[in-house]
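The data layer described in this paper is built around a simple, fixed record for each protein. We quote a single record here, exactly as it is kept in our systems:
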Amino acid sequence: MGDKCGSRGKTAPMRLLGGVGLMCLLLGLGFASGCGSSSGSHALLGPFAITVDAAGTIYVTDLDPVTQTESRIVSMNDMNGSGWTTFGSPGSGVNQFQNLFGIAVDSAGRIRTADQGAGVTPRIALFDDMTGTNWTTFGTLGNGIDQFDAVDGIVVDAAGKIYVADLNQRIARIDYLSGISWLSYGSFGSGVGQFSNPIGVALDGDGKIYVVDSGNNRIVRMDDMAGTNWTSFGVGGAGAGQFDAPFGVAVDNAKKIYITDSKNGRVVRIDDMTGSGWTELDGFDYPMGIAIDTAGKVYVVDYGRRQIVRIDDISGAGKVTYP
């Protein structure tokens, strides 16, 4: 494949280049294979992350990595695209995104996004709804407290605490966008307490933290922001127990773990962090973000096809796509 979107670096930390997005850099995609744009008034241009709120509303971060003329959130009420709404435009001001990536919705329905910054000002944005009501941002470029290198996956716990994957090779947690009670954990490497390009982040019902440690081709779980009971699973490859540029992670009510294994074109489910019950569903073209709704249905961003896929379970039953 061509390398017009950049290439995967050999050392960390990996920096973003322009607005083409982390995915193109990680996967080395050429424009013809997922980095281009699509047409149609309700088309997805370059979907990355996805979340589903308690009411079943679907939110997707979507940017055009070629022309950079769109950097937005798309919301829709269902997999028919009803209630299609977009919010955001390229830029660094109010209601604007520089390189939109992760997205989460809290229990009050407020939206939180990870705006990577692409070497300028990485930040988290919080707003109440898809009109941008009460827009607030937090974060600056750097490696200290209240600073990010580039923000990727984001998740919110039941208490409203925000967890974000930071390309300073760490996970950061703040109680609110004022930065109250900032905590961070991690450094660069492949050992315990170390990450190489952490991307996805999720929580289970007990508050345990799951991280896609993409550069190390593994999933990490820890009990808390001190790294207690650090456990990892996975190595590089294409077989069982192996990943190639894993991207997203989600945990269902039974604590089964779902991972998008991007370069292997599959979604994997494991029962626990030993990898037991390994089950995979193939047929995706660079799957990226993943989310699970209150009914247990699984939503996957199929980036290469610029589609959202919903399945009832890991067997692929009940498959529906949009568009």
